[in-house]
């Protein structure tokens, strides 16, 4: 920050956001900064000379009464114009404030401002790249800046000024290398925002330039130093008595008898040898996560390390970022934690550095600036730390990690690779946090020769994740696309190709031809097989649906493979040869690079070609399944399916291989790799017992079960409303969507309670969200939609921050996502959560049940729906202080015979009323008022 410059931090309130001459200003506020201090302020209300829209009144709190006696803009334009002359204009979202003011100046006969501008949104995004939100309301809370009247220009301008001063301090502390990089691309930032970094760079160059001890320069970037955690001697005894547990929790938490019982059972199992399995159903709000983490941490003191697996990467991150810090405050000793995910979740440092030298769009370049700063902060390299709304920027495909095999071990970045780091941590960590998908693929290494125990949280999801993650896919059209790309890279006459590599003596002519020959076999023969498959199995299906998915009989498919055996074999041999050639190329590249025998273009091309080659191998990794002996082995347990979008131009034909039952799979593949296995969940048991879940989890019927009781007073805390007059969702989908939209608008317009609306599909969320958007309800309520408003992490944060927010969710929002205390008061279930019977896996499961003489609906569909309802209700009442209403807008829960059974999923003592739609509002009023 230049001490001689005056910064004018501006915020305005207007009648609308369109800058087209139709809107007017309501308030102008400016905070002046000189010499790194707030020196003066100016604020005035402005009479817009037009009605103030209701949504603006609601947002700002400014009404016609507040501006009735205020000056018109024409009365104060001269004062405002002169105040801003000679200053640097600063605003939070400068594109709006600066442009709107200029439009108003022109309207009043003044010339446009021609002063420099700085955007605090972009500044914050670069300097603090991991924040989940850059709204001013969130930033004021994050920085603990008093924000007395959000969406009032005077309060907003003051907060923006304080924020600007804080950001300047952070910019001054950025390393020289980081400031040089940002300054290099400062022209990509809004207005003159980059000046903040170039000014800091000038000052930094006059300093010693020594990096702090926690940072190190690696190649062209600056990274946080990886430090080994040296733990002190940890002589601590597990708290066995109620008094000892009370002392342990101290002021952090209340000690609960059920949670204490759970802790003792987990600790006992982890330390003994006789028993090796335990199932614990711990009701929502009991504190089950700490119920297993505390004893696991104490068991680690005695050398019994644990792997904790949860259902999704979202829950994994929640566990790591929220619960582990709380655990560190509770237990009187330090411990080490590793978080393990698939490599695609991490950044590849070398790929990122290579991307810096390539042309990028402005959004991608801004993202690079943020990542450059983030690398000075992150200890994990996990891209989810960036809390981006979507990971759809092309840059992510360029810099995402592709696994250790894709790394160049001669690179300066190799020793600092984040995936390598996570593997090293795995060997020494007291606690390892992973997700079910990663667990299924890495059970043997995680179990460490049965030296570790396994705690499976959200265990009820493990069965379905097994089925989904064991779906091996062969996408014939993707293979063709990648092989085409490789052939173009080899022989292109317009851009860098193998021709230039031969000139630099990296390849011989014979080697280039061998590469081309092997890839050409794949490129030409795979589409032939694809067409044969479509003609044989899909031709008769017609084109009257958007998407077709059919199950193939193993005998018929095996016959097809035999008929085309020569092609399958030739392609398989070409794939193996290509892998050998790529590995040789990788070794040679390291040698040439070390000897500085390649120019920059050649290095970039070779790395890109190797990446593309390994991408083709990954697309073909399941090609071995066409071997006849492999088909014989999987015939009894596998389902083979063919999928294609029929009405989509160039739709990809995909062949799926998957298992359809977990029996006799999880025990040998997962549980047998660990010393003990503990299954934890809020919904593991049905009224009739653990039989269904034992089958799903491949457990013995004799497994020890600990069923813990919650301490909620459902009679006072909750109410269930079952609507009996909703249209039949199965036969009248169009009517039901209309009904659902109108009913939701009616409910949401009546109250301002924090609301979660649960759906069964993202498609239905999109349809309903669009319906709501066409009404005025979005002007009255903050409505956040999964699949529309960003990543799950972003959605949760928006829901936390929004007052009276409405979240439309499916999938994980039925399950274990922790919504904070007092953040949910109304739960609306739009449709009974039956799984689709038409998926390949479900069709195979139902067919097997039928063969065994069982009723598939009664033994599979109904129990699954009951578990899902239990999970959904679990979102609502999570503490003894919570109060909430659950509304089910699917009349089948009342009208069908199985509705009685489904209602057993609700808590016994919760009052449940069967009502008509028009009675909803009255019942909500009665509950919340009384």
Automatic annotation (TrEMBL):
Keywords: ATP-binding, DNA replication, DNA-directed DNA polymerase, Exonuclease, Helicase, Hydrolase, Nuclease, Nucleotide-binding, Nucleotidyltransferase, Transferase. NCBIfam families: dinG_rel (TIGR01407), dnaq (TIGR00573). GO terms for molecular function: 3'-5' exonuclease activity; 5'-3' DNA helicase activity; ATP binding; ATP hydrolysis activity; DNA binding; DNA-directed DNA polymerase activity. The gene is dinG. A motif (DEAH box) lies at residues 457-460. Residues 245-545 form the Helicase ATP-binding domain. This is 3'-5' exonuclease DinG. InterPro entries: ATP-dep_Helicase_C, DEAD/DEAH_box_helicase_dom, DinG, DinG/Rad3-like, DnaQ, Helic_SF1/SF2_ATP-bd_DinG/Rad3, Helicase_ATP-bd, P-loop_NTPase. Coiled coil: none annotated. Belongs to the helicase family. DinG subfamily. Type 2 sub-subfamily. ATP binds at residues 282-289. GO terms for biological process: DNA replication. The lineage of its organism: Bacteria, Bacillati, Bacillota, Bacilli, Lactobacillales. Its cofactor is [4Fe-4S] cluster. It comes from Liquorilactobacillus cacaonum DSM 21116. It holds the Pfam family DEAD. It catalyses: ATP + H2O = ADP + phosphate + H(+). The keyword Cell membrane does not apply. Its EC number is 3.1.-.-. 3'-5' exonuclease. It is an enzyme of class 3 (hydrolase).
């Amino acid at each position: 920050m230049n001490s001689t410059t005056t910064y004018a931090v501006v915020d305005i309130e207007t009648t609308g956001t369109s800058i087209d001459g139709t809107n007017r200003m309501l308030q102008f506020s400016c905070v002046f900064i000189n010499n790194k201090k707030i020196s003066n302020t100016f604020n005035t209300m402005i009479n817009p000379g037009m009605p103030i829209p209701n949504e603006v009144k609601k947002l700002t709190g400014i009404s016609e009464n507040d501006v009735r006696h205020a000056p018109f803009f024409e009365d104060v334009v001269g004062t405002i114009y002169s105040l801003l002359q000679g200053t640097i204009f600063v605003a939070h979202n400068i594109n709006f404030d600066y442009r709107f003011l200029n439009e108003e100046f022109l309207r009043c006969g003044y010339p446009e401002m021609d002063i420099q501008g700085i955007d605090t949104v972009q500044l914050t995004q670069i300097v603090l790249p991991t924040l989940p939100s850059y709204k001013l309301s969130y930033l004021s809370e994050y920085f603990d800046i008093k924000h007395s009247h959000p969406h009032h220009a005077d309060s907003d301008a003051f907060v923006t000024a304080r924020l600007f001063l804080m950001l300047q301090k952070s910019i001054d502390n950025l390393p020289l290398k980081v400031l040089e990089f940002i300054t290099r691309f400062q022209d990509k930032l809004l207005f003159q925002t980059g000046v903040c970094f170039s000014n800091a760079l000038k000052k930094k160059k006059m300093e010693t330039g020594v990096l702090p001890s926690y940072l190190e320069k690696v190649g062209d970037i600056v990274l946080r130093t990886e430090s080994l955690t040296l733990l002190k001697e940890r002589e601590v005894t597990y708290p066995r008595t109620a008094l000892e547990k009370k002392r342990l929790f101290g002021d952090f938490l209340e000690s609960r008898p059920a949670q204490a019982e759970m802790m003792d059972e987990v600790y006992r199992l982890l330390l003994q040898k006789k028993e090796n399995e335990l199932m614990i159903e711990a009701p929502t709000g009991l504190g089950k996560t700490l119920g297993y983490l505390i004893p696991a941490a104490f068991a680690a003191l005695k050398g019994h390390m644990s792997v904790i697996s949860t259902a999704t990467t979202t829950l994994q991150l929640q566990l790591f970022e929220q619960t582990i810090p709380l655990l560190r405050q509770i237990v009187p000793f330090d411990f080490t934690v590793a978080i393990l995910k698939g490599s695609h979740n991490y950044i590849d440092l070398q790929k990122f550095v290579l991307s810096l030298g390539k042309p990028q769009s402005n959004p991608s370049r801004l993202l690079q600036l943020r990542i450059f700063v983030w690398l000075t902060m992150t200890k994990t390299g996990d891209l989810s730390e960036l809390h981006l709304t979507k990971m759809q920027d092309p840059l992510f495909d360029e810099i995402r990690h592709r696994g250790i095999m894709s790394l160049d071990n001669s690179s300066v970045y190799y020793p600092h690779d984040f995936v390598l780091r996570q593997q090293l941590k795995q060997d020494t960590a007291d606690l390892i946090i992973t997700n079910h998908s990663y667990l299924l693929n890495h059970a043997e290494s995680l179990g460490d020769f049965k030296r570790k125990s396994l705690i499976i949280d959200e265990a009820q999801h493990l069965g379905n994740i097994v089925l989904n993650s064991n779906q091996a896919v062969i996408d014939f059209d993707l293979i063709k696309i990648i092989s085409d790309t490789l052939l173009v890279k080899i022989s292109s006459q317009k851009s860098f190709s193998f021709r230039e590599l031969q000139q630099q003596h990296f390849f011989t002519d014979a080697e280039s031809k061998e590469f081309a020959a092997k890839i050409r076999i794949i490129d030409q023969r795979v589409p032939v097989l694809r067409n044969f498959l479509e003609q044989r199995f899909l031709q008769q299906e017609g084109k009257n649906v958007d998407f077709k998915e059919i199950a193939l009989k193993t005998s018929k498919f095996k016959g097809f493979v035999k008929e085309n055996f020569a092609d399958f074999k030739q392609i398989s041999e070409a794939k193996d040869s290509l892998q050998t050639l790529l590995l040789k190329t990788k070794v040679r590249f390291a040698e040439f690079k070390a000897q500085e025998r390649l120019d920059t273009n050649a290095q970039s091309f070779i790395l890109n070609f190797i990446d593309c080659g390994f991408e083709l191998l990954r697309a073909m990794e399941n090609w071995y399944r066409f071997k006849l002996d492999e088909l014989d082995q999987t015939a009894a347990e596998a389902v083979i399916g063919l999928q294609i979008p029929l009405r989509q131009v160039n739709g990809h034909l995909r062949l799926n291989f998957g298992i359809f039952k977990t029996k006799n799979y999880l025990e040998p593949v997962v549980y047998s790799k660990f010393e003990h296995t503990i299954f934890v969940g809020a919904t593991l048991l049905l009224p009739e017992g653990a039989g269904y879940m034992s089958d799903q989890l491949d457990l013995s019927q004799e497994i020890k079960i600990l069923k813990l009781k919650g301490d909620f007073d459902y009679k006072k805390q909750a109410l269930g409303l079952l609507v009996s007059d909703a249209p039949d969702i199965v036969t009248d989908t169009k009517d039901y969507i209309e009904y659902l939209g109108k009913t939701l608008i009616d409910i949401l317009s009546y109250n301002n309670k924090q609301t979660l609306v649960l759906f069964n599909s993202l498609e239905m969320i999109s349809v309903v969200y669009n319906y709501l958007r066409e009404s005025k309800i979005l002007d009255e309520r903050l409505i956040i939609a999964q699949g529309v408003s960003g990543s799950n992490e972003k959605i949760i944060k928006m829901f936390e921050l929004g007052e009276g927010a409405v979240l439309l969710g499916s999938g994980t929002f039925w399950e274990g996502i922790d919504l904070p205390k007092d953040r949910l008061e109304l739960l609306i279930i739009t449709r009974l959560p039956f799984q689709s019977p038409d998926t390949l896996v479900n069709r195979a499961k139902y067919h097997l049940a039928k063969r065994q003489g069982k009723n598939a609906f009664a033994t599979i569909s109904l129990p699954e729906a009951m578990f899902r309802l239990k999970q959904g209700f679990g979102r609502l009442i999570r503490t003894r202080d919570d109060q909430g209403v659950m509304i089910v807008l699917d009349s089948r829960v009342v009208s069908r015979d199985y509705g009685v059974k489904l209602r057993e999923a609700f808590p016994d003592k919760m009052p449940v009323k069967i009502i008509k739609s028009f009675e909803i509002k009255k019942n909500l009023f009665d509950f919340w008022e009384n």
